What does this fold into?
Amino acid sequence: MRRSRVLVSAAVSAAAGAALLGSGCAQAAPAATSAMAGTTPVSTAVAAAGAAGVWGRAIAVPGLVALNKGRSAEVLSVSCAKPGSCGAGGDYTDGGGRQQGFVVSEVSGRWRRAIEVPGLGALNKGGNAKVVSVSCASAGCAAGGYYGNHGNLYDVTSGRGFVALKRHGRWRRAIQVPGLGALNRGGNAEVSSVSCAPPGYCAAAGFYTDGGGHRQGFVAVEQHGVWGKAAGVPGLGALNTGGYAEVSSVSCASPGNCAAGGVYAVGTSGGAQAFVVSEQNGSWGAAQQIAGNLSTGPGGNAFVDTVSCGSPGNCAAGGQFSASASSGDQAFVISEVNGTWAAARAVAGTLSCCGGAQVTSVSCASAGNCAAGGQYDYGGYNAAFLVNEKNGVWGKLMYVPGLNRVSRDAYFQSASCASAGNCAAAGSHDSGPWLASEKNGVWGKETSVPGALPVEAVNSVSCASARSCVAGGSYLGSGKGYHLQGFVT
It folds into this structure.
């Protein structure tokens, strides 16, 4: 019952905009000025930095070409603690055709050489490792993901979840999340999200498989360089009567104050439901169902894809829901105010005839000032949208400015806000990737990634200040066939 989901690794904020959809059936988006072009499935790496709305030229990720002998690499997550001090991670393929995880650091505005995550190769006997999430704060960075154990690159049922820390300028050895092995009796686990808050506090979350073959969600925290044991999300087991649960996203506003969200199954045919769980003063509360007021019909489903916290007890989450087994997916948002989660609400303007809508990324600059981005189906094509919360009130969606002029089929991948009204966003359309910047509450028009490299996609964006952002994605290298390499600026 794993759903199809657009990969996202960052958060988004947007200025309020006029709704482009009225009530009833969705209006068709204006036709793009460029012709439809087929996208090329690739896995590569990219990062580009922007300042004051001007994005810099992309260069190859230093050292990644030497690692990537199998010609397939990607950056999946980027995170910046301050301008010129960022981290990124993803995967590459070695000469033996094995997938490995890598990290790369930006120090004083200069990108260093990409390295295999220390110690991950020794863990990765199955040859299938990947860095899924990276988060950086003042004390350093954390990375998380999975590695395989049984020698099959395409075996997705035998993973182990790992974490690695960067402290004092150096990445430490990757370790299996402490205590996760004891929980993971079914042999398949993954860290899907990590989040760090200064000074020296991080959280990791994901899923494991219990002895009965049921998927369960877990959380683990790190303080001052030491990871505590993974624990099942309190209360989630009781909700998860269908035996399929996972945490998809975690966000920490300060040490001991985090929030996470994901999905669980109800019975054998009761569909899926969305949940959130909050940590306050170092103690995780019980998981609670959300979006039940939206997903109420027989066979209805709901999922949380993304969570962000602006301050302790003030967070937001987003995802998708369907009111019945036959209705299309719609996008929703939900806010936590002073430690209490409000009712979920559909994103205004996405309740269309065609469904297929979801929130893929959310970011909170401060309490009650958040925004989200995603896409919706308007008759066989996808439109990327933005929607913001201002002073606790969610507005209506708006198109990414200028995007409909270059493409009629676009996705919202990732974005990040350094402060209220100062953000960056990124995604892809049928002709390639797009970037957009918001300054003082006004979004500028989308633009392509500058430079000579043939960029294919952007997966992740992180902004450390209103004038400094980094994005990560993909480009197609030269040579016969698909030569997949990565770049940063």
